[in-house]
Amino acid sequence: MGRYDRVPIQEQTREERVEKFALIDDAYSKQEAVLEAQRCLQCAMPYCVQGCPISQDARGYNILISQEDFDGAARLTLRDNPLSTVLCKTCYHFCEDDCIMGGKGVPIAIRHLKRAALDYGKSDLLYIPTKRKEERIAVVGAGPAGLMAAWDLAVRGHPVTVFETEPNLGGQVNTIPRYHLEAEDLNTDLARWKNLDIKFVVGRRAGADFTPKDLLKEGYEAVLVSVGASKARELAVPGEHLPGVYHALPFLLRINMGPPGVFGRTDRRVVVIGAGDVALDAARSARRLTGGGDVQLVYRRGPEDMKATVEEKEGGQLEGIQFVFYRSPKRILGTERVEGLVVERTEHGPPDAKGRRTLVVVPNSEETIPCDTVIIAVGEVADLEGFEKEYGFKIASMGWPEGKHDDCMTDVEGVFATGGRSVVHAMAAGERAAAGIDAYLAKKHGRAPEPRPDPFGGSEVPTLPPGYETPTWTP
Ligand SMILES: Cc1cc2nc3c(=O)[nH]c(=O)nc-3n(C[C@H](O)[C@H](O)[C@H](O)COP(=O)(O)OP(=O)(O)OC[C@H]3O[C@@H](n4cnc5c(N)ncnc54)[C@H](O)[C@@H]3O)c2cc1C
Predict the structure, then answer these.
(1) What pLDDT score was predicted for residue 293?
(2) From the CA of 147, how far away is ligand 1's center (Å)?
(3) How far apart are the first and last CA of the chain?
(4) Could you tell me if 236 and 307 lie in one domain?
(5) Which residues, in sequence order, are CB contacts of 374 under 8 Å at separation 6+?
(6) Which of 198, 291, 392, 462 is deepest in the core (most CB within 10 A)?
């Protein structure tokens, strides 16, 4: 193995994968991690850091791991990333896409090295609250954007209350299948937040139980709306409401959070509609639920247009998903339950006025794909029911609401909004909104804005008491 080859990661075989929802990737051993970190060129201009939405110092923790200083690497990782345990298994590793080693060989396995830092270094550290500020802040929505903003603002000394409609924190992280992320990982991260002044209130829905403007009236000086895009986009074809039709997000959430036995039986024939990461996760989960059964993924365009990451596509192929391209769903057949999916063939038509490829339906090309289960994964939209129009939210292309201004503020003074297309992008968005809120409050109260302090206080860091478990939150 030369410098340009990655120290291999052990992965489950196809047979092992479809048997159960267990992590696909093994962790590096200590020795493997050191060898992999020693491949890092320690670039003077670290593109990996620039490529990371939250500017994690990957070069820094690679150096420390290469010197077998796993404690230092864990502390450096956790300093800027309060959801490190989640990200070391789920991040789409934009840092690796920019790693200079990728030009000649295989990029450094930065995400796996982050995991090694936490596995072998002292990672049960506690964040230290800094000098308290008096302005209370509310965050609406406890996905990665809201959590990151709450953490950042609490580290700056603000008391924060997070309102969440679901019984659990984490937002869409709770739908990420267990072959990518384990059940306890988010709580491992949140346990380190124990000493921060963050109160979680679950089971409260903005738009129904209160509005952001109500929170301002109650004395919160700023409100961040980080509600994501959590409502399934409908396919809008006949038969969509038949038993046997699922939407991907509630389907994946149920697999993770129970009750068990989503399909009732294991011999289902499943069709998934969509071609993004969520569609692939639904299809790969269906393969596991059916013990390696018949799972087809139907997409109206070709493979080159699929939005899913290479990792998801290759994972789906290896696990035996059948890809059916250039088929557009027309209706779902059935009376008491799904009996099939009627599709029409599609093909590329002439370019439109802007030169983009168009897609046309081939006349008289209907065919039926026999199946008894259909999972719809064609995207999500924000659910803004009950929110006043005057916030003037900008809706991102993937559906979540944002503030129109650079600091994420909406048209209502003191109300901010943000979200993101991956866990780390959402965290970066939360970090940006927190900086915007802090600067807004600093100006309002005649303070100079300050950068976020070191969340470990720059000194010896306390650790979690033995046996401490993250509390579960009740309404
Ligand atoms: C199946 C699946 C797999 C994914 N896998 C990965 C992956 O492997 N890696 C990766 O980086 N990204 C992945 N993502 C994407 C990632 O999870 C999202 O980009 C990220 O969670 C978005 O964060 P957010 O905080 O903007 O929104 P969300 O995570 O959607 O959080 C919004 C929160 O607001 C709450 N909320 C909504 N409305 C209200 C209201 N009115 N009042 C109060 N609370 C409200 C919601 O319940 C939710 O908790 C995946 C997404 C899905 C669906």
Answers:
(1) 93
(2) 11
(3) 55
(4) yes
(5) 244, 245, 246, 270, 271, 272, 273, 332, 338, 341
(6) 198
The phi and psi torsions of 81 (rounded to 5 degrees) equal -140, 95
Average pLDDT score, the chain = 94
Provide the number of structural domains found in the chain. Answer: 3
Per-residue confidence (pLDDT) for residue 475, from 0 to 100: 45
Range of the domain at 356: 232-380
State the average pLDDT over residues 93-120: 96
Q: For position 370, which CATH number holds?
A: 3.50.50.60
Domain identity same for 54 and 115: yes
- If asked whether residues 221 and 236 sit together in one domain, one would say no
- Identify whether residues 113 and 152 lie together within a single domain: no
Cα(297) to centroid of ligand 1, in Å?
23
Q: How far is the CA of 251 from the centre of ligand 1 (A)?
A: 15
Write out residues with Cβ below 6 Å of ligand 1: 90-92, 140-146, 163-166, 171-173, 175-176, 180, 205-207, 226-228, 230, 249, 252, 277-278, 281, 383, 400, 419-424, 426
Q: What is the pLDDT of residue 58?
A: 95
Same domain, 367 and 395: no
Number of helices (H), then strands (E), in the chain: 15, 18
Which residue of 147, 422, 432 sits with most ligand 1 atoms within 8 Å of its CB, as the best mutation to test the pocket? 422
The DSSP call for residue 258 is S
Angle between helix 58-66 and 70-80 (nearest 10): 170
- Local structure of residue 196 (DSSP, 8 states): S
Same domain, 240 and 331: yes
Q: Where is the domain boundary, 92, 120, 148?
A: 120
Per-residue confidence (pLDDT) for residue 462, from 0 to 100 = 78
Q: Tell me the pLDDT tens digit for each residue of 270-318.
A: 999 999 999 999 999 999 999 999 999 999 999 999 999 999 999 999 9
Tell me the CA distances in angstroms from 272 to 136, 294, 373, one per residue in order: 45, 11, 8
pLDDT band at 208 (very low <50, low <70, confident <90, very high): very high
Residue 16: closest CA among 365, 287, 261: 287
Question: What is the per-residue pLDDT across 51-92, written as a single tens digit (0 to 9) for each?
Answer: 999 999 999 999 999 999 999 999 999 999 999 999 999 999
Task: Indicate whether 218 belongs to any domain.
Answer: yes
> Which of 89, 423, 427 is the pocket-test mutation for ligand 1 (most atoms within 8 Å of CB)?
423
Q: Domain check: are 242 and 265 in the same one? A: yes
- pLDDT above 90 covers a percentage of the chain that reads 85
